[in-house]
Every structure is written in C-alpha cells, then in structure tokens.
Amino acid sequence: MARKIGLIVLTALILGTPIHAEALDKRPPWKILGEALTYLHSIPEVAWVQFHEHKVFISWKSRPRNFARINTIAAKRAAHALHNEVTVYSLPPGEILPEELWGYEPPSLCKTIANPQEIIESNCR
Question: How many angstroms separate the CA atoms of 90 and 22, rounded?
C-alpha cells in the first residue's frame, strides 16, 4: 500500500513539474526568430531581416509612420518566441551587415531590448 501511495506521489510530482518550452525546442535561435517574425517581410518599408543568436537586424528602405511600434512588437514577439532576452536593431537604408560584425553593436537608427515579460530599453521614436 505504501508503495502505491509513493508511486502516486512521485507521478504527481513529475507531472506537476513545469517543463520550459525552451528546453523542448531544440531548433537554433535564428530559425525560431525567423518563424516568429515572418510578418516583417510583408511590411513594404522593410528591406531585409537577419538573425544572429538573440539579435534581430532589420534594415529599412524608408521609415514607416509607426516605426517605434513595429520595433517594439518585433522585440516582444522575438523575446516571447525564444523565452529569453532579445535585442532588435533597426538599421538605416542601404546598411549591409557582414557576418563578422554580428558580435558588435552596429550603427543603428534605434535599438530595442526586450525579455519575455517587458521592454527593458528602447531608444526608438
């Protein structure tokens, strides 16, 4: 009888333990971000979007009317998708970002940092 109760308690503990979605998703961050932010490709003012680790780079053809809002939404969606802090850089028109510079902060129009719960910092106006 004690063994059955022990098994029931153990099963309840195992089933009740939360499993992080991040641990279940073994895809690379760029793939997760690409799926979460596919809508950016439908915005006419966006020239291109690139992903590197927990960074999103958006190059603009021109500045849309709701520029700050687009950056904020992209940062929130990216952070939520990765379950981690993400930085979104908005790059000026014509800016090309070679892979060797991905580890550095590029010259940007603005930068937004978000975690899954909130926007931490943004200088987008």
Answer: 26
Burial category of 122 from C-beta neighbours within 10 Å (exposed 0-12, middle 13-18, buried 19 and up): middle
Give how far the C-alpha of residue 124 lies from the chain's centroid of Cα atoms, to the nearest Å.
17
Q: Classify burial at 10, counting beta carbons within 10 Å of its beta carbon; exposed 0-12, middle 13-18, buried 19 or more.
A: exposed
Look up residue 84 and give its amino acid.
N
Q: What are phi and psi of 37, to 5 degrees?
A: -115, 25
Cα(28)–Cα(82) distance, integer angstroms: 10
* Short-list 29, 25, 119, 14, CA closest to 75: 119
For residues 19-48, average pLDDT: 83
pTM reported for the whole predicted model: 0.74
Average of per-residue pLDDT values in the chain: 82
The DSSP secondary structure of 40-90, one letter per residue, reads GGGSTTEEEEEEETTEEEEEESS--TTHHHHHHHHHHHHHHHHTS-EEEEE
Does 96 score more than 80 pLDDT? Answer: no
